BHLH domain-containing protein
Amino acid sequence: MEFVASALDELCITEQGKIGGRMGHRSHNNDDEYKSKNLHAERRRRQKLSERLLTLRALVPNITNMNKATIVEDAITYIHELQKTVNILKDQLFDMEASEEEAPEPKKEEIHSAEEMKKFGIQAGVNVTQIDGNKLWVKAILEKKRGGFTKLMEAMTAFGFELTDTSVTTSNGAMLVSSCVMGFYCETLEVEQTKELMLEIISSI
């Protein structure tokens, strides 16, 4: 009897070992499957992040370096610049609306300038010439007004123009402003688009 009991005990131990082995094998397979799913999920996350960074890099005109941290920093700087431009444009729009509501009478000197320009056949206008890929030479003729040159420079800067070699002359009631113009961050400027924008600017001064 003792021999039979001992044999049964050994059989039970053997069966338990087999069951434990099968369970251990299943547990190992489950761990591998879980790790594989996590690996795929991490790859998808990194791929999406890389795609978003590429999109961000395409939107920001001035990227100083291609690493992730620099792309984000340059994007933040660019957003701050855009916010400043928006605030400037808001202030200008507010001033324009306020001046339209007040509707002051034209000053005598402005009336004189307009009459003098008409007398000599001078018309307000803009001439834009391409210098190279991202540089334009702009000549603007507008009526001579007090503070007109300052308003013109402020408006051009607010619209994203970077000005160099600027000169101004006045004659016969007119003001001629010449300047080399580039877009901020070396942005390429179109001749016709720049001309239309300049005409809008001088007509609002």
